Amino acid sequence: MNVSRRWLEDFLRRPLETGDLVARLGMLGAPVDAVEPLHAGLGEIRVALVESVAPHPSADRLRLCTVNDGSGTPKRVVCGAPNVTAGRRYPFAAVGATVPHGKGGGPMKLERANIRGEVSEGMLCSARELGLGQDHDGILELATDAAPGTPLLEVLPIADDRLIIDVGPNRPDLLGHKGVARELGAAYGVPIRLPAIPGAERIDVPPPRREAATAAAGGIRITLEDLAGCRRFHAASIRGVKVGPSPAWLQSRLESVGVRAINNVVDATNYVMLELSQPMHAFDAARLRGPALVVRRPRAGESTLVTLDNVSRPLDAETTVIADAEGVIGLAGIMGGASTEVSDATTDVLLEAAWWEPSRIRRTRRRLGLSTEASYRFERGVDLWAGGDAMRRCVELVLATAGGTLTEPPLDLWPEPSHPPRIFLRPARVTQVLGVELPWHELERCLVAVGATVVSKPADGRMAVDVPGWRPDLKEEIDLIEEVARIHGYDAFPIELRPARVGSLPDAPIELAASAVRQGLTAEGLFEVITLPMTSQDAPDAVRLLNPLSASDRYLRRELLSGLVRQVRFNWDHQVRDIRLFEVGTVFRARPGQRPLEARNVVGIVTGAREPLHWTGTGKADFDRWDLGGFFQAAVALANPAASIQVQGNSWVAVSEDGRRVGRAEVLSADAPPWAAPLLGFEVELDPAPRPPVRFRPLPSTPSSERDLALLLPDGVAAAQVIRVLRQAAGTLLVGVAVLDEYRGSGVEAGIRSVLFRLRFRAPDRTLETAEVDRLERQVLAALERELGVRRREAGPERPKEG
Amino acid sequence: MALEKTGFADLDALLPRLERLAGLDADPLEAEHIALLGRKSGAITELLKRLPALPIDQRKAFGAAVNRLKTEAEALIEARRTALEQARRDRSEAVDLTMPPRRRWTGADHPVTRVIDELLGIFRELGFTVAVGPEVETEWLNFGALNFRPDHPAMDLHDTIYLDAPPLNEAPRGGRLLLRTHTSPVQIRVMQASAPPIRVVMPGMVYRNDPFDPSHAPGFSQIEGLAVDEGLSFVDLKATLVQFARRFFGPTTKVRFRPSFFPFTEPSAEMDVECQLCHGSGCPACKGTGWMEILGSGMVHPRVLENGGVDPERYTGFAWGMGPHRIALLRYGVPDIRLFYEGDMRFLTQFGPGGQGDA
Questions:
Q1: Is the pTM here over 0.90, yes or no?
Q2: Is residue A346 a contact partner of residue A241, using CB atoms and an 8 Å limit?
Q3: A 366-395: CB under 8 A from B
Q4: Computed from CA positions of residues B184, B190, B193, B197, in that sequence, does the dihedral angle turn out positive or negative?
Q5: Which value does ipTM take for this structure?
Q6: Of A65, A116, A262, B307, which residue has the fewest beta carbons closer than 10 angstroms?
Q7: Where is average pLDDT lowest: A287-301, A781-795, B1-15?
Q8: Residues 6+ apart with CB under 8 A from B350
Q9: Contact assessment for residue A78 and residue A115, using Cβ atoms and an 8 Å cutoff
Q10: Which of residues 595-634 of A touch B (CB under 8 A)?
Q11: DSSP collapsed to 3 states, A263-294
């Protein structure tokens, strides 16, 4: 909502300081998004007195003027305006000053000029040159006796600030200057009054005639058929208007809030809307067929309407329309039709001030994608009880600016009259919600300040409050409590940390699990990313979006890894080679007839150097599949500790206790630049089950013995099988197995590899004797040969070690 | 008498010389080595030479003492030699310690996660626990239960992404499925699942049909808070959130509350903190106001309590919501929200330990 400071000043009858205005509106709940100073470009223009006017020696149309600009030195100015007169005052731009609208239309800085042989030391300005109107027939004569040199802005009441207020959807009353002024009046503690209409004689608009659903105004039969769409309809007929430009004050008022002036009748309707928040409409009465005006739904065959903007709009059964005797002529509450638009030829007008059902307006506005100043206000709700005041104001304005006669009192069609609601307020409830006990008179003060009436003080201690019609948002007790808090002032409530009971809910286990995963994977050297779930990947159980932001990303992701591959590509595109990313994110699966299944997955991707490059020679190796396996092991232990890792084909998978695949790790193929390292990725489902705490195991109190065994594994025998046999054969005395080396080549037959295992033996209760370890070693070698055909490599390194 | 004969006094007289060894330079050290241990006339050697002349009964004790002295002297001389040698090497072939040391890769949480963790930490200390809910919601839980009316302009602020799926029949009401536009549905879920006193914070991703630009994204994080109990009031709301602001932004941070509008709270309040860049004097970041909007809050609307199965006459509550993505922009001075979504290592590594860029 654009608001003019000067317009508000007229309501409050006092000067307002813009900064203070902004601060107060903010604290009242109507924050100002921006302030635009108007006519700021006139700062250098001063009042000047023309002391003498003489003909230009070499040009008939030009005059030579002597100008007193207050500087002490008279200026010689060449002026082409026919109306320049000695002894009068005009706006003057001296050499060096800037005029807002110069010859090219833009700002122009004045220089000393030589015009037909005569020096000119400045310019006397027209209204157009100052951006104050279109008048360029002569220079702007100032009706002032201000001293020469006085800044023009101190003389002309045009310096203004446009405030752009962020009005919440609950406050339609703030969509007009009167509503904003009313709030400020409450804040400043001053009454407000409608500004006088300049130049208007006292016009006596009679009170409207109250009717039910149909009546005639100026010979036009007006009927409300769609009572669900229109609760109240005011109309007034004015004959003999002369349509033309509005007076300057009205044009400049509209322009001060960014509304273009059109003609006096249309400008009057816009003025009333901007002042009282009630949108108005003016029909060319002569073009109403019948003559009649009907509020109804479209009939069969009525499928489109050409609106004022010359666009054909489709109608549907939910649209409330305005029709004449022969067809639809307007979209109620949104935009009028082209056929009955007020034009220069119009002589009779019918003015409308209606109350349209907000939800209906909203639906049609959305359906047509057509938001107007009118629909914006109707959708939020205009004052059902103030349409008459708006009509009276509009009639006054039209009569004052376009002439004509109001042939009969305006009409008020109101089939079901009502009063604004009465709400009961319990002071104890105010205390309960606001935490401070406010005395009765303070409650009353706050409510009266917003326009409510405290009508009685019933014996039960409740306050009966009649809310004003312009506040459709005040419907129940809690709404009044908010008004009390707002007017009392949010600052006035103490900041006092009072004792409170803690909640009984434990932290959500999945959040704790996610947090543990993050901690673990950052310790592994990975960086967390956050990606969005929209994807282009379809699948039978993919969740589909109805209105996706981008036509390609119309599904919700079922896995995270492909999103991270995209991010790796982004890095590659920026010549980044070492990339280590992870995410804990939500994945979705559609389930017919139910909500989609949502789960959280943990995903990681790495590529590039295994460690930072260092001048001593480390950091030259890239991550390989064995690093991937390690990351995967860590991720599974963090995210899904009950799962086990298995080999499947050429990659690893994690399998839950019930045999479900809950994770995978793989060497990825991607569209990589030639300098990129292998791309390695893994993804694991995050198990939300609470993690049991770590259990302490007693530290060993006996020494262990190590034996290194170089074993010959025929192809087809896996290390895991060897380890299983080792454990079976050695029993609990074997406390650790490590793999130290793998070798193929000379000295080892083809089809066989030599793998070096280090076995660690320990008895919890005694020091193992060498003989006993020898016996265990023989035992496992025998079992390996028996079960896997694996033998010891005789020449293999052997490093018995006690420790 | 016997002592003098055996030479224990001569032995003691050598002790100060041993103490001085650690301060000698290389040449005096070698001279002293000879003077003490020289085969011909070293002082300690001389003492040893006396041994054969001693009576048997004294020979053993004196011999042991002299040998201890000798060992000690040798060790001290050797240690001093090593130290001098090290010093010499440090001087001549000195290690250049300005060469870069060796680092290991380090990882880091996303900057938005850092903000979320910090926020959650503060609220945990104020007695709140963490609750979460699904990202796909029904119209009822996302809007209706939160006192949005279907044809109200307040809906315009929530440009909703709907699922292409039939509406859901859920008790008490379901409706179309959508990506939640705020974390507020979790409020209803928590109230339905537990009885007051309730004190929870609810982090999560929310979605709006807004295209990416420097300050908008179609999905971003939110943290919602909810406290419901007997006797909670607007004073508790203000005090709790001021406490939070001072913990998060600093103990002297100025805070203000402005009236605002949310369908699910009444009275509603916007909380501003003094601009973190200009500290109140006005700058482009705060549009000259000196304040920055940090969160929306309010007393839970009675109808929302009712929809959560809580008696609004007995219990009151307050709630608030804020955007960690937005707070992270402010906190880290990030100019464009899209940087949070790109996974750019050059960006992420700035938030690692030591802030080193390693990519």
A1: no
A2: yes
A3: 379-380
A4: negative
A5: 0.85
A6: A116
A7: B1-15
A8: B357
A9: yes
A10: 595-596, 598, 611-612, 614-616, 618
A11: CHHHHHHHHHHHHHCCCCEEEEHHHCCCCEEE
